[in-house]
From TrEMBL:
Example of a GO biological process term: acetyl-CoA biosynthetic process
Native source species: Aliigemmobacter aestuarii
Designated gene of the protein: acsA
Protein EC: 6.2.1.1
UniProt-recorded name of the protein: acetate--CoA ligase
Residues covered by the AMP-binding enzyme C-terminal domain: 469-547
Length: 573
């Protein structure tokens, strides 16, 4: 079925009221006194200098019910203290600091303090095991680690002696094991003012790691200039502005939790909600209601889990403060968009970007009508196209054609390198385009539609089948909570579609339902595209950032090597 267009939302502010473009966006930032650009200065110090130090910057909600509020002045002071701690241990600008901790206030002070000191920040998932932590710290040539005593004992201590470059381990709290430094006392003894290191726009600021299907993780390099895009895209795509109550549910261990869980909201002077706990439906609904959240940025996985619980779970709640809902992490099915409208009175706005792009590139913005299931349109300053190979070069394809999503290079948050892999980086740029590896289609109205990763495409009897199309059709059935689709070999067709689904509460996984789902898919998609087989699962393998790992399903189905599993959330077999 084709879903009706949802008219544009009523934004609190007119997203087009200010001049757009990267020059205008840069002019909205202060820059360092005397020249230069530093993310931490734009995120906190300039607001304090402008008289906004008393505003709440961060409201931290502890796992056990604690609640702590930090003002912009508090956060600036803590960042300064942390920068002094680094200097006291002879950590120089340009060295790399890794973060291995949950969503606790010290992580935010450490992130901003390191940037003030010109030290590069590399976040890690707190749920990583010893080997993923070690691999990333070795690739990134870590000098500093900020972590907890328990993470250190289990994940770092056994191999620390093999990494002599790791000169400083800061333990969050008031006590530390031998060979480490307790962060609490060190911060308490440090001054609360620090002259920000005069970083230049092209100095490295962030090092994010992203996993491929094989080989070691890639270190994606971002620079201080990225703050121009962080700030501007938060304003345009998420409708952020001074004083907003904003909740990004992403963990800072992945790129969304850094770009839009720390940098962008602080640059736009919002009050951030930070929840230490993991997903819990009642807790999340209570936070939205109690904290009067206005802008909420979450993941399709969480939305589908809420859908699975049913609208009655949200009944009786007061969500009247909500103004704008957005989603990121993987494509957003049309049913999720419509469910948001039905449950919250607001649709979820999808957007698209990657670790490599550093910030949102394509979005359904507040001033756009929404086509449920579409990624949206390129933001101002972003030139996007659909391209295909033509000999040794690249040719742009017409509207309606499926090809690789590509971007014209030059936006401020574009990755500057894959650390230590210049040839791999160079392969991303062909014919004046950055090639994303995602397949998409642009319609006649300029909206982009996700089809799938290039390596997820299914080729069956001459048809090119995008998994997302099939998954979206299955999710439209009232029994289906989530779906993942892969291609499996077939002697006649080359490949046929196999689907894995999880069910909503109250539905029984039996042969009758499997036949009903296949019939539903054939009616929606036609027999050439619909799944030949549907398997019911309790859960689907996904990364900790919420993306379903289709390639892992395929590897396990066909007995192929499973590749890098360091970002796998649990082991969903």
């Amino acid at each position: 079925m084709t879903h009706a267009i949802i008219p544009r939302a009523a934004s609190r502010r007119d997203a087009t009221s200010l001049p757009t473009g990267w020059v205008a966006a840069r002019a909205r930032l202060d820059g360092l006194p005397g020249g230069g650009l530093n993310i931490a200065h734009e995120a906190v110090d300039r607001h304090v200098a402008a008289g906004h130090g008393a505003q709440a910057a961060l409201i931290w909600l502890g796992r056990e019910g604690e609640r702590q509020e930090l003002s912009y002045a508090d956060l600036a002071a803590d960042a300064a203290r942390f920068a002094h701690v680094l200097r006291a241990h002879s950590i120089a600008p340009g060295e790399r600091m890794f973060l291995l901790a949950g969503r606790v206030p010290a992580l935010y002070a450490a992130t901003l303090g390191a940037m003030k000191a010109g030290v590069v920040v590399s976040p890690l998932f707190a749920a990583f095991g010893p080997e993923p932590v070690r691999a990333r710290m070795e690739i990134g040539e870590a000098s500093v680690l900020v972590t907890t005593a328990s993470h250190y004992a289990r994940k770092v201590a056994p191999w620390r002696d093999s990494m002599p470059g790791l000169r400083l381990v800061l333990i969050i709290g008031d006590e530390a094991p031998e060979g480490c430094v307790a962060l609490g006392p060190a911060m308490a003894a440090a001054p609360d003012r620090f002259d920000t290191h005069p970083t230049r726009p092209e100095d490295m600021a962030l090092l994010h790691f992203t996993s491929g299907t094989t080989g070691l993780p890639k270190g994606v390099v971002h620079v201080h200039e990225a703050v121009v895009a962080h700030a501007e895209t938060g304003r345009l795509a998420l409708d952020l502005g001074p004083g907003d109550i904003y909740w990004c549910t992403a963990d800072p261990g992945w790129v969304t939790g850094m770009s839009y869980g720390i940098v962008s909201p602080l640059c736009n002077r919002v009050t951030m909600i930070v929840d230490e706990a993991e997903f819990d439906l009642d807790r999340w609904y209570a936070i939205l209601e109690r904290e009067r959240v206005q802008v909420w940025y979450t993941a399709p996985t969480a939305i589908r889990m809420m859908m699975r619980a049913g609208a009655e779970a949200a009944a009786g709640r007061d969500f009247s403060a909500l103004r704008f809902l957005a989603s990121v992490g993987e494509p957003l099915n049309a049913e999720c968009v419509i469910w948001g409208q039905q449950t919250f009175g607001l649709p979820f706005h999808d957007n698209w970007w990657q670790s490599e792009t550093g910030g949102i590139m394509i979005a359904n913005t507040p001033d756009m009508d929404i086509k449920p299931g579409a990624m949206g349109k390129p933001l101002p300053g972003i030139a996007a196209g659909i391209v295909g190979r033509e000999g040794d070069g690249i040719a742009e394809l017409p509207d309606g054609a499926i090809g690789e999503l590509a971007l014209r290079p030059g936006w401020p948050s574009m990755m500057r390198a894959y650390l230590g892999q210049p040839e791999r980086y160079a392969k991303c740029f062909v014919g004046g385009w950055y090639l994303t590896g995602d397949l998409a289609m642009r319609d006649g109205d300029g909206y982009f539609w996700f089809v799938g990763r290039a390596d997820d495409l299914i080729k069956s009897s001459g048809h090119l089948i995008g998994p997302f199309e099939v998954e979206s059709a299955l999710i439209e059935h009232p029994a289906v909570a989530e779906a993942a689709v892969i291609g499996i070999p077939d002697e006649t067709a080359g490949e046929v579609v196999k689907a894995f689904v999880t069910l909503k509460a109250g539905f029984t996984p039996d042969e009758a339902l499997e036949r009903e789902l296949r019939g539903h898919a054939r009616k929606r998609l036609g027999p050439a595209v619909a799944p030949r087989e549907i398997v019911f699962r309790e859960s689907l393998p996904r990364t900790r950032s919420g993306k379903i790992m289709r390639r892992l399903l395929r590897a396990r189905e066909l007995g192929l090597p499973e590749g890098d599993l360091s970002t796998l959330e649990g082991d969903s077999r």
